[in-house]
Amino acid sequence: MNRNILEICRNNYAHAIELDRSSVPGQENRESERRWDKYRVTFSEVINAVKNEQDAIFWAQCKSKAFDSRKPIGALGKILRCDAIRYPGRLLKFFLPNISIIYLYEKILKHSFPHFSKEIDGFSDVNVSWKETLLKVKNGRILSNVLFWHAYHILTCATYVRDREIKSVCEIGGGYGNIARLWFSNTIVDIDTYLIIDIPESLFFAEVFLRSTLKDVDVVYINSIYDINNDNNKKVVYLCPVYLHELTSNLNFDIIANSESIPEMGDDWTRFWKDWLNNQNASYFYSHNFAIHRGAHMPIKEEFISPLVPPKWEAHFVQVNHPMVMLYYRNFTIATILFKNLKVDDSGNSNTNNNIEYILELRKREIITQDIFIYYVYGLYYSQNINEILNFVNMSIRDLHFYPKELYYFINILLRAEESGEIKLENKEMLAEIARNLRLPVDGKEPLYEAVPENRTAG
Fold first, then answer.
1. What gap in Å lies between CA 136 and CA 307, rounded to an integer?
2. Is residue 62 exposed (0-12), middle (13-18) or buried (19+ Cβ within 10 Å)?
3. How many Å apart are CA 364 and CA 395, to the nearest integer?
4. Residue 307, preceding bond cis, omega within 30 degrees?
5. Each residue's pLDDT tens digit in the chain (459 positions)?
6. Of the candidates 257, 131, 117, which has an alpha carbon nearest to the alpha carbon of residue 183?
7. Rounded to an integer, what distance in angstroms lies between the CA atom of residue 28 and that of residue 40?
8. Within 10 A of 440 (CB to CB), how many other CB atoms are there?
9. Which of 135, 206, 254, 438 could join 177 via S-S bond, C-beta 3.0 to 4.6 A?
10. Which residues, in sequence order, are CB contacts of 192 under 8 Å at separation 6+?
């Protein structure tokens, strides 16, 4: 490794933490109970303490408990033949559960994306990753449990973005950079530009990892508008401190992506990212985030619908709890959603948020599943049609055997409409009781968000 990498990354971090932070949320109470505010303090201490790049990567992957959940394969896994491990019997599954899960992830991806079965064999981890988690197979390929978890995002985008070639991607909260690395190293899509926008404390680890692994890609830390070069013919990763968020609108993105972080930030950050997204030149927004059920790790001021998208963004693809999620997160529900920006869609035949009433009318006799529920949540978010919101709430209560947290938002709209005389609710007491139950604390945390935005109109 280049001995200068750590020095370069520390210098960029030192510059970024001196930037003006007034344009982002949460600065008035940075020592709050938010998960990432606590991480920021710990990260800054580690940044000053690590001795080399390998130490930084190891800490990000193993010690931080913030970026992913790597699992050691165990000493026995390193000495057995790979073909014996690939199809383990019950005894090996008992002694090598973390290796068995690696191959199970791979099998799930090949069943889910059979058109990319051959390309999935090309995904590989890297030698600089935490050694205890790496399984080296015969062809020199390196596997880990997080490899296929991260590959899922790329496979989903490559499958369901059908109207354009993916050449540029922006990631909100890029962790230590592994997803970015996979976007450049896979054989399915050939991207030119990748931008990570994040807090400087996280960008430090992403910069160390990407400079250590992407030898043929420029890594550019954005300090000003002059660091963005739209005419660069070389592949590039931009690292943008969130305090310079207004600069990202100078680039065009085929996809903006976020995985498992926006709902953790709280309602002010959820709305910040919605407004930021509205200012971007992007065609799709890929979200892989916690939904349906409230989680104990969420902040006190939790947005009941998160992430949010601006008007004229349509849910193009929805999948609740992909099979890998059931193995990876056994106590959480995750919705994979691909939103399409209708402002840049020139096909003239896309559905819009305005025809959700028509779709609801067609589906009144269908059963609401969790996937369909998420479609309606985003389709109705900006709707002013109280009757259709009432239909949606009643259909959800009728068909689902529990009350998803997102219902809290719509029930509050109905209760306030009833108070203003706009509608007469026959089941007002029942709806009020559901809303109260949805606000009950999770592990002692009380959500404070009232679930009604200042302006729900799409105008």
1. 37
2. middle
3. 7
4. yes
5. 455 899 999 999 999 999 999 999 876 554 455 666 778 888 999 999 999 999 999 999 999 888 888 988 876 555 554 544 555 555 555 556 678 888 889 999 999 999 999 999 999 999 999 999 998 887 889 999 999 999 999 999 999 998 889 999 999 999 999 999 999 999 999 999 999 999 999 999 999 999 999 999 999 999 999 999 866 678 999 999 999 999 999 999 999 999 999 988 888 899 999 999 999 999 999 999 999 987 665 666 667 899 999 999 999 999 999 998 888 777 789 999 999 999 876 554 444 445 666 666 656 656 888 999 999 999 999 998 999 999 999 999 988 888 999 999 999 999 999 999 999 999 899 999 998 888 766 555 555 444 444 443 332
6. 257
7. 15
8. 10
9. 206
10. 167, 168, 235, 236
Give me the residue label for tokens 């491990």.
85
* Exposure string over 426-438, b if 16+ CB within 10 A, otherwise e: eeeeebbebbeeb
Considering Cα of 367, then 369, then 371, then 375, what sign does the dihedral take?
positive
Buried b (16+ CB within 10 A) or exposed e, 357-370: beebeebeeeebeb
Scanning 113-216, the segments in alpha helix (DSSP H) are 117-120, 145-160, 178-185, 200-213
* 145, 149, 154, 159: CA torsion to nearest 10: 120
User: And the tokens for 437?
Assistant: 């139950």
Helical packing angle, 5-16 and 35-49, nearest 10°? 140
Which amino acid, 146? V
Q: How many CA atoms lie within 13 A of 281 on its CB side?
A: 8
What is d(CA 30, CA 43) in angstroms, rounded to the nearest whole number? 14
- Cα dist. 179→17, 66, 195 in Å? 24, 15, 11
N residues, the chain: 459
Pairing state between β 334-341 and 281-290: antiparallel
User: Cβ distance 264 to 36 under 8 Å?
Assistant: yes
Both tokens of 192, joined, read: 């030119």
Structure tokens at 333: 């529900």
Query: How many other CB atoms are found less than 10 A from the CB of residue 172?
Result: 24
- Answer for the pair 382, 391: CB distance below 8 angstroms, yes or no: no
Are the C-beta atoms of residues 353 and 383 closer than 8 Å to each other?
yes
SS3 content of the chain, % helix, strand, coil (to 5): 45, 15, 40
